[in-house]
Design a protein that fits this description.
The chain is built from 14 helices and 29 strands. Helix 9 (387-394) runs antiparallel to helix 10 and helix 13 runs parallel beside helix 14. The longest helix is centred in the C-terminal third of the chain and has 16 residues, at 505-520. The relative contact order is 0.10.
């Protein structure tokens, strides 16, 4: 057992302090460590270290609770704990763990005075939909396919070669989504994330031709209003998707400016010659010209103020509940320019002015922490802290590292449970706690292979259970609950096989059960997080708040684990919530055992916090 602190209410008195406020922070120290000589908090205001003495607050079931006060002096206030043990050695406790040497400032715990995410963010289960592949309404079949499209029947195979890879058109629309809200309500998800709904010249629509109107192929503006109203009536929120890094080359702005230096839209893009013939684009793809955020007019039209695109779709009658921002990591960045912070802060201010109860999440495929300190994006759609480590632990050796998994190698690395733990903690450590709670835990997305394609036998409940119970927003990519597979991002964009709903009933029930578990228990929606056992094949962790303690075991093989009697503090009884693993207690501690792969969850009673 180790000393523990995190950003949850058990350990921090105020999750959203203002500058100049005092905050009480608490550290949990096990008696097995011995009696400390001193416990201090080391803050770093204005980059100059400052120490606060902690006092013993209480003792319960093998743990001492120490408390100190810190003054919030910067918008992002970093701090760590230092415990001088009875034998005179120092332990440094930060967001990455417990160390016997001094640690990095970048891995300190962080409190931010920036406006907090909406309260509903930490309890969200997100369902991702690519509109072309979800469902067709009756009206969809009456619409004529656009000139760029290669029409397909709903049960056709997804084509992997260009041009069909980007242009195969199945014709799903927004009213089709509305028709299937019963399914989403049965699953228990709480929010929908729609990939782009603006017209483009591809099936994915990330090459927007405009941001001012919903694609008529999806039913137009009226269909979005119908979908959002129907979703809200069921208690579901709806997020849209914006590309802040680029537009499409058929976008009105680009068409006006291309080869026309005199156009007002000329400064919206990065031109590489005086004639404005050539231009910077996303990864050199000509159809995705890169936006130039030095332009005041671009900011006014797109992200700044009540008349901007960002604002328009959050206001009635559309009333979206937030945005997911595509390619946020590259937005505003080119060579010696870096306007990323300006862009994300402007988007955040606009959203707060229009509706402060909206969520702003953003794509950043690798180490996202530098851009996610609470000043702009609420949380990250990233792969480094959960998706890639999970695939390393629970997918077949030699699994191809395709699409948004983002590994610069042909196959995924194979991880032990120890390596999953280290990678997960390393990439989560840089986030403030509130950011971590709004960061996505995705098994897969529209940019990756489907997890089920390469999963080890029997581990789907393990992977899904971890996504639902670790801190963050679980993400279900539409079709995962049907057991769909796919070898890369485009291949994973399979039309929903609605005719197989009965056949997929067991998998759908699994998803509904674990989503229900997540949404029912308060500690899984903002409670603290402690690792209790880390082995090559089995991980044990607890989520805790003032109301409950929930214990999880995730195993890819048979397991038999003993926890110290005080690991979760005075357990009197355990109620099984999921799984078939065994839990027993005696004077020596807690024993967890079972056949793997397995995921199991218990609610513990009699725990002293």
């Amino acid at each position: 057992m180790e000393p523990h602190h995190d950003g949850s209410p058990l350990y921090v008195s105020n999750q959203s302090p203002a500058l100049g406020e005092w905050v009480q922070v608490r550290l949990r120290v096990p008696h097995t460590l011995g009696e400390p000589r001193a416990v201090r908090v080391r803050s770093n205001p204005d980059r100059e270290p400052r120490f606060s003495e902690a006092t013993l607050l209480s003792t319960a079931a093998g743990w001492d609770w120490w408390q100190a006060e810190i003054l919030i002096e910067n918008p992002v206030h970093g701090y760590r704990w230092v415990v001088r043990t009875g034998d005179g050695h120092d332990l440094w406790i930060n967001a990455r763990g417990v160390f016997d040497t001094e640690t990095l400032d970048s891995e300190d715990f962080k409190l931010t005075s920036h406006p907090a995410p909406p309260r509903w963010a930490s309890g969200t289960v997100l369902y991702q939909i690519l509109p072309d592949r979800f469902a067709r309404s009756a009206a969809a079949s009456q619409r004529e396919a656009p000139d760029w499209a290669i029409p397909a029947e709903w049960d056709d195979e997804v084509e992997l070669e260009q041009p069909a890879r980007s242009q195969q058109f199945f014709g799903g629309d927004l009213d089709g989504i509305t028709l299937h809200l019963d399914h989403l309500e049965k699953l228990g998800v709480s929010a929908l994330y729609l990939t782009p709904i603006f017209a483009g010249r591809s099936n994915h629509r990330y090459d927007a031709s405009n941001f001012d109107a919903v694609d008529p192929l999806l039913g137009g503006d009226e269909a979005l209003v119908r979908l959002v109203e129907a979703a809200h009536a069921r208690g579901l929120r709806v997020l849209g998707d914006l590309t802040s890094n680029h537009s499409g080359d058929a976008h009105d702005w680009f068409v006006a400016a291309h080869r026309h230096p005199e156009a007002i839209e000329s400064d919206f893009y990065h031109w590489l010659d005086d004639e404005q013939e050539t231009y910077a684009s996303w990864l050199g793809v000509p159809s995705l010209p890169k936006l130039n955020w030095n332009s005041p007019e671009l900011r006014r039209r797109f992200i700044e103020g009540d008349d901007s695109i960002v604002a328009k779709w959050l206001k009635p009658p559309f009333a979206l509940d937030g945005w997911r921002i595509d390619v946020a990591n590259m937005t505003g960045r080119l060579a010696d320019q870096d306007l990323n912070a300006d862009v994300r802060r402007t988007i955040r201010r606009t959203m707060i002015d229009v509706n402060p109860d909206t969520l702003l999440v953003a794509e950043s495929t690798n180490d996202a922490s530098i851009d996610f300190q609470g000043d702009g994006w609420h949380g990250a759609m990233t792969y480094a802290n959960f998706t890639r480590p999970l695939w390393g632990w629970l997918s077949e050796p030699g699994t191809p590292a395709g699409g948004g998994l983002g590994m610069n190698m042909s196959t995924m690395p194979t991880y032990t449970g120890q390596q999953f733990y280290r990678a997960h903690r390393q990439f989560s450590a840089g986030f403030p706690w509130q950011t971590r709670l709004a960061t996505m835990n995705a098994l897969d997305t529209h940019d990756t292979p489907r997890f089920a394609t390469h999963a080890l036998p029997g581990v789907i409940p393990v992977a899904l259970g971890m996504s639902m119970t670790l801190p963050g927003i679980p993400v279900v990519f539409a079709g995962d609950e049907f057991g769909l597979t796919g070898i890369d991002g485009e291949h994973s964009r399979t039309p929903m096989p609605w005719e197989r709903a009965d056949e997929a009933g067991e998998r759908i029930d699994l998803y509904a059960t674990l989503i229900g578990l997540r949404r029912t228990h308060s500690s899984l929606n903002g409670g603290g997080m402690r690792w209790l056992h880390v082995g090559d094949d089995v991980l044990v962790y607890a989520r805790e708040d003032e109301f409950e303690t929930i214990l999880m075991v995730a195993a890819r093989a048979d397991f038999d684990v003993r926890l110290h009697a005080d690991a979760v503090g005075g357990v009197q009884s355990a109620t099984r919530l999921f799984g078939s693993a065994a839990l027993s207690t005696d004077e020596d501690g807690i024993r967890l055992s079972g056949d793997g792969p397995a995921f199991a969850v218990w609610q513990l009673a009699g725990v002293a916090l």
